[in-house]
Amino acid sequence: MASKKMADGGLPVIARFEVRHRNYLAPDGSISRPLPAFASDATLLVALYRAMVLMRIFDRKAVALQRTGRLGTYAVSLGQEAVSVGTASAMRAEDVLLPSYRDNGALIWRGVGLEEILLFWGGDERGNHFSGPLQDFPFCVPVGSQAPHAAGAAYAFKLRRKPRVAVCMFGDGATSKGDVYEAMNFAGVHKLPVVFVATNNQWAISVPLRLQTAAETLAQKAIAAGFIGEQVDGNDVVAMRAAAEEAIAAARDGQGPRFIEAVTYRLGDHTTADDAARYRPAEDVQAHWKEEPIARLRTFLVGQKMWSKAEEEQLATECHERIEAAVERYLTTEPRRPETMFDHLYGKLPKAYVAQRRELAGEDDV
């Protein structure tokens, strides 16, 4: 005991913890530290860039549809594209994604159709029947409630000895919910193959981070649950890909859960039902535009001779064409008949509901 370092008051220090911060590309696109090996793969970096650009243009179109009464309330990802794209790009097809309502970029990367996303936000649950991996979970609108589901899925993987990982994404506000703490505690105790990704965009609707938590970082919340938490520059898609790749590999290898705090900024409103100008100074938003992920990666790619103006113009054209085609498919989708609300409720529909279904369907009561 005498050889141990003594803290204030002469008490022994029994444990020390640290949280590391990861970034590779500075806001101006310059390299801040040696890049991971995959960053030399121009094909991959361009794919990441194209996915982020598609997401931003798609968001813009979705907002236009909502403003003209052709879509319901919609949550944009403006400024946060690197988090979802970087995370999803590190996953395998057999892994399972548990997204929040703002992770369209991850869904699209994993094969979800643009028209399916529009269907969901248009109020049609058929949008959750993804073209991507069918075992991925649907959109989760309740804040943080997907975290226990992630722990449950990961527990099943461990019990079945499947080399699969559950990747759970949520916002900074979700870290104030008991659902998230309980899921993390369970995952830590059982060393489950799950990665929690908290998108720290500084705002839980109108509540700033300083009123969400007194913790210096969100990443340190993993320490209490017994596993590693890392803070990452969420505006650096290279850092997000690298962090997710390492965390998912560790979880798959039986090393237990990991937590990634992706520090970014919500450049848009919380949803189309929100007006962030009522609680957020315009000068703060303008300052954060200098850090946004798409311009950062584009500057790097151009500097490395991996991207050109002609390719940028072609990409914009391709994105617009793809999005407009998806919008057309969405708008021309026949609405579901009202009696289908009874489908999938039970293995066998109770008699009382059978009669109601027939009435809605206009069928004679036999």
TrEMBL record:
It catalyses: N(6)-[(R)-lipoyl]-L-lysyl-[protein] + pyruvate + H(+) = N(6)-[(R)-S(8)-acetyldihydrolipoyl]-L-lysyl-[protein] + CO2. The keyword Oxidoreductase applies. This is Pyruvate dehydrogenase E1 component subunit alpha. It holds the Pfam family E1_dh. Heterodimer of an alpha and a beta chain. Its EC number is 1.2.4.1. InterPro entries: Alpha-ketoacid_DH_E1_comp, DH_E1, PdhA/BkdA, THDP-binding. GO terms for molecular function: pyruvate dehydrogenase (acetyl-transferring) activity. Residues 49-329 form the Dehydrogenase E1 component domain.
